[in-house]
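Quick one, tokens below. Sequence please?
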């Protein structure tokens, strides 16, 4: 099993925030020891010449084989992090999305292939992450989600 390592340059990525009954659709992030370290919403790199909208649609189609609708405003996070001894640097664009396929709702786990490896995707209750000693990636996303939810309820 090859462990993902951050690239040696800055990369622009997109992530889609898909929700079901207050739970976020996210991939499990594992360390080289195979232990789950946290979760990250689905998405990936923006390719050269591609808009963030096009990238987000493409990523959901590649990872889950489904179409999405972007339904929320974009949020940006500069994410400088350390993973498995290597520093990574990302500019992350995040937006709320709706899945155009109801078959994924209510499923406890979903499997997809990412970079040639099976990836477990779950509907995660963010309030349970701390109890399970897991993190939400990218760092800073939890604050954006919280601020966005507060502004929607105002």
């Amino acid at each position: 099993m090859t462990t993902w390592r951050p690239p040696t340059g800055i990369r622009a990525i997109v992530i889609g925030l898909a929700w079901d009954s207050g739970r976020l659709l996210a991939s499990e992030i594992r360390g080289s020891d195979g232990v789950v370290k946290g979760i990250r919403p689905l998405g990936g790199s923006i390719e050269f010449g591609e808009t963030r909208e096009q990238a987000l649609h493409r990523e959901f189609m590649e990872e889950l084989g489904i179409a999405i609708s972007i339904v929320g405003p974009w949020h940006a996070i500069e994410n400088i992090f350390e993973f498995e001894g290597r520093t990574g640097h990302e500019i992350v664009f995040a937006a709320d999305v709706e899945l155009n396929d109801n078959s994924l709702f209510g499923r406890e786990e979903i499997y997809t292939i990412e970079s040639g490896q099976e990836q477990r995707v779950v509907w995660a209750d963010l309030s349970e992450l701390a109890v399970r000693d897991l993190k939400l990636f990218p760092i800073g996303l939890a604050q954006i989600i919280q601020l966005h939810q507060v502004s929607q309820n105002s």
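The beta strands are 10-20, 23-30, 36-41, 43-45, 68-70, 75-83, 86-99, 109-114, 117-124, 135-136. The first strand starts at residue 10 and ends at 20.
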